[in-house]
Amino acid sequence: MPSPYTIRPFASHTDRAQCVALQELTWGQGFTEKIPAAMLLVAQKTGGVCAGAFDADGRMLGFVFGVTGVQDGELMHWSDMLAVHPDARGQHLGEQLKAFQRDHCRALGIKHIYWTYDPLVARNAHLNLARMGARVREFVPAMYGEGTNSPLQGDMPTDRFVVAWAVDPVDAAAPLHGLPAEAVQAVDAAGNPAAAWPDATHVVVRAPRDITALAATDLDAARRWRFGTRAAFQHYLGHGYHVAGFVADDDGGSYLISRTAP
């Protein structure tokens, strides 16, 4: 069957205005990290990606935005924002927008696309690491500050994983299909870190199913998750470990943190 939408670059101020409106719908009217229409235009003219999925009537159902720059003498692309309208969720539209972005970057000779996500949003962890094959490059506490005035963020610091996605799918990370039997739990199913950090080859850091919903109903519990996992990620990634993958389950999921081989 034909696709119910077309993915294409923004072509008018109307497109950019729809993007701003979708940002506000997704993250709230007071969202401080909103990308204005003028910057969408500038980014597109300087090698960035400003593209949307539009239905037959020109209504935007989703968008992806990223900027292109230079890192260590090579072109790189930073995917800054992606959103899908509530009416179009559950159709893997986010992955299709990412694929469009990857094709744009491949044409420019870019090897990796970078972006951030909240480690405590289990569905995004599953999408980024398991389905798309991105790799975690670093953990940054409060990357965008102590808050963004978005109801989706809650009254918590904006801790983030920075991930790298290979433009060439051959270099994508293989998904995990389970946790090693010898893996030791470092953060439990309530967000509590171990009394002493296990010195093991593989450790497990739990993530809740929906930190956004939890923050709306039990902020104290959400903050326990935030600071418990922050301590674990900082400890292990600072001591020669890496994020080997994520395994989703009905209660959220588990990060496998493994000691990096010499």
UniProtKB/TrEMBL annotation:
For molecular function, the Gene Ontology terms on record are:
acyltransferase activity, transferring groups other than amino-acyl groups
Name it.
Answer: GNAT family N-acetyltransferase
Pfam families attached here? Answer: Acetyltransf_1 (PF00583)
Which organism does this record belong to?
Pseudogemmatithrix spongiicola
Q: Which UniProt keywords apply?
A: Acyltransferase, Transferase
Ranges for the N-acetyltransferase domain?
5-157
Enzyme Commission number(s) from the entry: 2.3.1.-
Tagged with keyword Acyltransferase: yes
What InterPro entries does the database record attribute to this sequence? Acyl_CoA_acyltransferase (IPR016181), GNAT_dom (IPR000182), GNAT_N_AcTrfase_prd (IPR038764)
